[in-house]
């Protein structure tokens, strides 16, 4: 976020709302109350997220006058009911009319199948604005990645489509980092996979959880040689390096890469190993204190230990 907040023109680009609409919602309906800076209005992250939720509700047929006065908790409750029952949200205290089901993940998958990046990106972005970062991971990203992986292995998804899905999730990570990462995080984590480990979804989801929890994230992608990981660590000085190990075909090479990182990583930097094959690398760490992450519950525990707000 820009120092002190977002100016109104930046908010217009982030939300897709015209400047005149933003001004009217603020002055007439008190939908948000940005603070005044030397150069005009400055909107915080929470106000940007609130505006996006209000935008989507208005697009679904609600009048801004109906929803502008609702609290953030009430707005989130409306959205939560929508996602739980697959219907459009209803106003608190009113009878909700039946509306078409909202097929969140299926909408994204359908767009991926027809190579419609823009449509898939819009749907993911919509879900990211109405859910907490943790819910985005557990209720959208992980089920989506699992389904994409299953379809790819079954031959129902091409490599190009799988790559397109990965690109979508990377873009979503960037959005979470812009919204949630503070300028001075309490801890910074570097995420990557060793050379010969090309599966990226797990490390992407882990980075998204850290970003959504307000920690600093340095995302290097997949399949990075040990020397590159070490050089990046020396330059950036992260508090933690998180490596994901899921494949079995190239285990000798993967174990060798982990060994190099563990032996040469600065002692001040914690080493975390995640993925279904992470425990096989335990003997390669040379006795170096290492955190093993068998699942995302363990990851969240250690993120909280660093100060994440999950």
Short description:
By secondary structure, the protein is an alpha/beta fold. The chain has helices at residues 8-15, 19-27, 45-59, 64-67, 72-85, 104-113, 117-130, 133-153, 159-180, 201-212, 226-236, 251-264, 296-305, and strands spanning 6-7, 35-37, 40-43, 188-192, 216-219, 240-244, 270-274, 290-293. Helix 8 packs antiparallel against helix 10 (201-212).
Can you tell me about this structure?
This protein has 310 residues and is α/β, with parallel strands linked by helices. It folds into 3 domains: 6-85, Multidrug-efflux Transporter Regulator, Chain: A, Domain 2; 103-176, Methyltransferase, Methionine Synthase (B12-binding Domains), Chain A, domain 1, CATH 1.10.1240.10; 181-310, Cobalamin-binding domain (Rossmann fold). 53% of the residues lie in helices and 10% in strands. It has helices spanning 8-15, 19-27, 45-59, 64-67, 72-85, 104-113, 117-130, 133-153, 159-180, 201-212, 226-236, 251-264, 296-305; strands at 6-7, 35-37, 40-43, 188-192, 216-219, 240-244, 270-274, 290-293. The strands form 2 sheets. A 5-stranded parallel β-sheet has the order 5-4-6-7-8. A hairpin with a 2-residue loop joins β2 (35-37) and β3 (40-43). It starts with 5 loop residues before the first strand and ends in a 5-residue tail after the last helix.
């Amino acid at each position: 976020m820009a120092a002190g907040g977002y100016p109104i023109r930046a908010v217009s680009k982030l939300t897709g709302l015209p400047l005149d609409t933003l001004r009217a919602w603020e002055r007439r309906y008190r939908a948000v109350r940005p603070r005044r800076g030397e150069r005009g209005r400055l909107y915080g992250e929470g106000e940007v997220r609130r505006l996006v939720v209000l935008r989507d509700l208005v697009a679904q047929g609600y009048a801004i006058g109906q929803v502008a006065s609702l609290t953030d908790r009430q707005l989130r409750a409306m959205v939560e009911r929508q996602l739980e029952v697959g219907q459009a949200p209803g106003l608190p205290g009113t009878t909700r009319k039946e509306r078409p089901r909202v097929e969140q993940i299926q909408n994204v998958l359908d767009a991926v199948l027809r190579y419609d990046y823009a449509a898939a990106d819009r749907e993911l972005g919509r879900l990211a604005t109405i859910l907490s970062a943790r819910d985005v991971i557990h209720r959208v990203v992980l089920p989506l990645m699992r389904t994409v992986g299953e379809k790819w292995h079954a031959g129902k998804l091409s490599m190009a489509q799988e790559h397109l899905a990965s690109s979508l999730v990377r873009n979503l990570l960037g959005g979470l980092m812009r919204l949630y990462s503070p300028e001075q995080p309490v801890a910074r984590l570097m995420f990557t996979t060793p050379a010969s480990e090309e599966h990226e979804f797990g490390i992407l989801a882990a980075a998204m959880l850290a970003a959504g929890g307000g920690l600093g994230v340095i995302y290097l992608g997949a399949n990075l040689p040990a020397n590159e990981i070490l050089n990046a660590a020396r330059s950036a000085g992260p508090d933690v390096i998180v490596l994901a190990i899921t494949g079995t075909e190239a285990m000798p090479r993967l174990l060798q890469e982990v060994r190099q990182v563990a032996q040469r990583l600065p002692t001040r930097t914690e080493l975390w190993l995640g993925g279904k094959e992470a425990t096989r690398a335990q003997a390669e760490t040379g006795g170096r204190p290492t955190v093993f992450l068998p699942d995302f519950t363990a990851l969240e525990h250690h993120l909280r230990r660093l100060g994440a707000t999950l």
